[in-house]
Design goal:
The protein is mainly alpha-helical. Helix content is 63%, strand content 3%. The chain is built from 15 helices and three strands. Strands 1-3-2 form a three-stranded mixed sheet. The two termini are 17 Å apart. The relative contact order is 0.16.
Length: 385
């Protein structure tokens, strides 16, 4: 039977439940202004979007931790091969599965590169670095995380191959890369900044190796987590480096706080990573001390991240189509190039929260069954699903 690290599965499961809220909003909420637009947003709408900012950094960071743990039972050569294959599979998953679920287009006019591809590219880069000393990988991770915002002051190439590569690897902000007259790639996650978080996770993976001291691990996670949080507050107050979107005083205290928290996800800024990974490290330390029904609930989802990720998106798209039919609306796109939605369709935010709870509940027993199956079987394909 395969052993799991409970704290990691608990936090990953918690994050996946939160992630479902954001995707429920994507598929079922009224179309409207961005939830992070300070001029139009409400506190609850902003929070609904902001809390899900913790999802992608946690997935990427924990993927790095998992890569280190996978290396405990493989040689460097075997781990490199595994990461290359796993990375390629995640990129293909975005191109073939996620693109279809979001665009609802069987002809694939819009190919999406999102969080799975960010993890996939990160794994491929890690595979190329795997023989480097851990200190070197740590230095590269820190250089990326703390230095990539220096590019805010440099104008990257915009045209030709150089422009495409710059977009994919350094500066993607929901960029559309044309492939032909009627096909394009939507690059939402710049490879290099997100790879910095994955490499950092790989470095932290040593804390979870067999025989590691739990007290030392918790201490390191707490110190690093609170250091990240403190540095976030300090740099955000200085308001000069670490995020291309400075905060400003708004019409009231609540919206001023929202502006302070409104860091940039695409391209992910230093402050975005400090704001998200700091609390995640603290939660990872605290989760080791908890063992109750609530943590057991989240652990069910954290055991099977890929299965749940694909499955809950499938269910949300099915719900979207059925509800459009029940409302009697024509299946005519509202024009969103990334997430297909019927014109005039949508529910208020309170209903979106109810749909979110339904989707999470619907997958509890399937995830529990599949988690048990994975722990008691050794087929090679289980490493990919």
């Amino acid at each position: 039977m395969k052993e799991r690290i409970h704290a990691i599965d608990i936090i990953r499961g918690l994050i996946m439940v939160i992630m479902t809220l954001d995707h429920s909003r994507d598929f079922l909420h009224y179309a409207g202004p961005s939830p992070t637009n300070m001029q139009t947003t409400t506190v609850i709408l902003f929070f609904t979007r902001w809390i899900t900012h913790y999802c992608a950094p946690t997935f990427v960071f924990l993927s790095g931790v998992s890569a280190f743990l996978a290396g405990q039972r493989r040689t460097k050569k075997e781990l490199s091969r595994f990461l290359l294959k796993r990375g390629a599979w995640l990129i293909l998953s975005d191109l073939l599965i996620i693109s279809l679920l979001f665009s609802f287009d069987l002809q694939y006019h819009m190919l999406v590169l999102e969080v799975l591809s960010a993890i996939g590219f990160g794994m491929i880069i890690l595979a190329l670095l795997i023989r480097a000393p851990r200190a070197v990988i740590a230095a590269i991770a820190l250089l990326i995380l703390f230095g990539h915002n220096a590019l805010d002051y440099v104008r990257p190439p915009e045209n030709g191959i150089a422009g495409v590569l710059s977009t994919i690897f350094l500066s993607a902000r929901g960029a559309i890369i044309p492939l032909s007259a009627n096909r394009a790639i939507a690059e939402l996650y710049a490879v290099i900044p997100w790879t910095g978080a994955l490499l950092m996770g790989y470095v932290f993976g040593k804390l979870y190796q067999t025989g590691a001291d739990p007290k030392k691990r918790q201490k390191v996670l707490l110190v690093c987590g609170f250091s990240f949080i403190g540095l976030f507050i300090l740099l955000r107050l200085v308001n000069h480096y670490g995020d291309p979107a400075p905060w400003s005083v708004q019409r009231n205290a609540a919206h001023t706080l929202l502006s302070f928290l409104n860091t940039t996800k695409q391209t992910p800024s230093l402050l975005f990573f400090l704001m998200t990974l700091g609390p995640v490290m603290v939660l990872l330390a605290l989760a080791e001390k908890f063992n109750n029904r609530v943590t057991a609930f989240f652990e069910v989802y954290g055991n099977v991240p890929y299965f749940y990720f694909i499955g809950h998106l499938c269910l949300l798209r099915v719900m979207n189509i059925l509800l459009i039919g029940l409302k009697g609306l024509p299946f005519k796109s509202d024009g969103n190039p990334l997430v297909w939605q019927a014109q005039g369709f949508g529910f208020p935010l309170w209903a979106v929260y109810l749909f979110w709870l339904f989707v999470v509940a619907a997958f509890y027993f399937p995830c529990k069954w599949y988690g048990n199956y994975k722990r008691t079987h050794l087929q090679w394909w289980l490493s990919y699903l």
